[in-house]
Design brief:
Blueprint lengths: L1 H32 L20 E6 L4 E3 L4 E10 L9 E6 L2 E7 L4 E8 L2 E9 L4 E8 L59 H19 L1
Parallel strand pairs: 2-8
Antiparallel strand pairs: 1-3, 3-6, 4-5, 4-7, 7-8
Protein name: DNA polymerase III alpha subunit
Keywords: Signal
Organism: Enhygromyxa salina
């Protein structure tokens, strides 16, 4: 009778243990085979390569001021060859949206004897890879309020920012009030990125649920 009672009692217990173990294994398999280990890109931009080839104006500097129109100067171009796209072979320079020529420019180049009359002028370049950037210069003109006289030479004109990857230098790179393009005035530069939960914590969750059930059945 005692053995018979024990067998009746142990049968459901063993069945419950097996059921819990089966559910735990199934949950673990679903987590591993799903997207538990996929970590999203916090930047949200999946199409931008990390190390792209860039070109930029070493001179003139953004918002540079020239006096004594007409003025003549050389535009010096710097080039950085990235690892994630094709190399830059040529660069074309535009003055006020008019092309002044194309040069071989794998290691940098110079467009000499550019002449500008009085006024506000835009200089832009386009690399053979399609990369573009530009600067604005002033000839016998005052730059807008909020920009540094002398072309913003204190910060190097943006020439050291990752090889000219900052497109905010176009059209002076400034807006009224002295904030730079893309600066996101009012603290907009700060963002909070959601941190995905650890996949190992998700895998351990069914095991934590299993332990109390086994203790109660004992």
């Amino acid at each position: 009778m005692i053995d018979h009672g024990c067998s009746r009692h142990n049968g459901p217990v063993h069945l419950s243990k097996r059921l819990l173990i089966a559910l735990t294994a199934a949950a673990s398999f679903m987590l591993v085979s799903g997207d538990a280990f996929a970590v999203p890109d916090p930047s949200g931009d999946e199409g931008l390569a990390g190390d792209i080839s860039t070109a930029w104006f070493i001179s003139p500097l953004p918002n540079e001021v020239f006096e004594g129109a007409p003025v003549m100067f050389d535009a010096e171009i710097g080039v950085y060859q990235g690892l994630d796209d094709g190399p830059i072979t040529t660069v074309e320079v535009f003055v006020n949206d008019v092309s002044i020529g194309v040069q071989d420019c794998p290691d940098g180049c110079t467009f000499a004897d550019i002449v500008l009359d009085q006024g506000v002028h835009s200089l832009s370049l386009q690399a053979s890879t399609g990369y573009t950037t530009g600067v604005t210069v002033y000839v016998d003109e005052e730059p807008p309020s909020g920009t540094d006289d002398g072309g913003g030479t204190d910060d190097g004109g943006g020439t050291d920012d990752g090889g000219g990857t900052d497109d905010g230098t176009t059209d002076g790179g400034t807006t009224d009030g002295g904030t730079t393009d893309g600066g996101g005035g009012g603290g907009g530069g700060c963002s909070v990125q959601a941190t995905p939960p650890s996949p190992w914590a998700l895998l351990a969750l069914p095991l934590f649920l299993l332990v109390p059930a086994l203790r109660r059945q004992r």
